[in-house]
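Data card: per-record layout.
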Amino acid sequence: MPTHPRKLLTVITEAALERALIADCKKLGALGYTVLDVRGGGLHGHRDGEWEADRSIEMQVVCSDEVAQTIAEHVLAHYAPHYAVSLYLTDAQVFRAQKY
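The structure for this 100-residue chain is written out next.
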């Protein structure tokens, strides 16, 4: 079965940004997204989600390279200076290209 190349953009950030990120991704060309509640730790501490202000989300967007780059630039410029943000990009292969 043939596949089609796309990018998987993953944004891990504070849950307070969820609605804004969803709106931004739609506005910037993403056709869909997935949001998960996550926990973890790193250089700047641990987020276990025990209280509302300590919750984190992981947003996944499968899209074209151009859309992924546009969203990443937006997140880095508008949110990363003020919020905890981890952002990474990986290659993906999809079966139904029209969905992404």
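Known properties of this structure: The longest strand covers residues 4-14. The CA atoms of residues 3 and 96 lie 8 Å apart.

See the next section for split statistics.
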